[in-house]
Amino acid sequence: MSVYDAEAGRYAKVTAGLRDDPDLLAFIADLPRGGRVLDLGCGPGIAAAAMGEAGLAVDATDASAEMVRLAAAQPGVTAWQASFEEIGGAATYDGIWANFSLLHAPREAMPRHLAAIRRALKPRGRFHIGGKTGTGATRDRLGRLYTYYTEPELETLLAEAGFEIVARRRGRDKGLDGAMADWVTFAALVAPARRG
Fold first, then answer.
1. Which of 42, 83, 148, 168 could form a disulfide with 60 if both were Cys (CB 3.0 to 4.6 A apart)?
2. Cβ atoms of 154 and 184 closer than 8 Å
3. Contact assessment for residue 97 and residue 51, using Cβ atoms and an 8 Å cutoff
4. Environment class of residue 99 by beta-carbon count within 10 Å: exposed (0-12), middle (13-18) or buried (19+)?
5. What is the mean predicted confidence (pLDDT) over 13-27?
6. In this predicted model, what pLDDT tens digit does every residue of 129-162 receive, in sequence order?
7. β-bridge mates for residue 58, sequence order
8. What's the pTM?
9. Distance in angstroms (rounded) separating the CA atoms of residues 157 and 174
10. Is the model's pLDDT at 86 over the cut of 80?
11. Torsion angle of alpha carbons 3, 135, 47, 4, nearest 10°?
12. Angle at 15 between CA 13 and CA 115, to 5 degrees
């Protein structure tokens, strides 16, 4: 996480427009006022701050100490340093926001992380995930691990973890490393338990 510690200020500028992101606005609108949310891989806390301003109770975690420092400075945000391996709790959150964070996890860890996220969500809880599309895994010029998924792969992983996809959005943008990349976001709900 030394990259994010070193680049926290620049990353905050790159992601400043997130407050107006249609996925974030939809995520907030679909949650109960006063609901509890987790911003998983919160970065500088821009999305977390918007959630707090909307009346949500916001927990925010990131593996980067500097990102946590920036997020904790946002009004209404409780932030602490944690890895994806530390996702815990059962039926704790009304929503979990994982916007372009889980793409830094190794492929073999993704099913485990999604299972932990599902456990941490309340029944019919809302989950947002964003990732870069493609195949394989690589490190970018800043040294960050990126694991790429095709849309069908992500759909399958979400379904196997017990999520029902309700919306998706695609795009192409320039990242912190200056490279253009295709991406997809999914909005999902905890699927009802199967009977019989």
1. 42
2. yes
3. yes
4. buried
5. 77
6. 999 999 999 887 767 788 999 999 999 999 999 9
7. 37, 77
8. 0.89
9. 26
10. yes
11. 0
12. 145
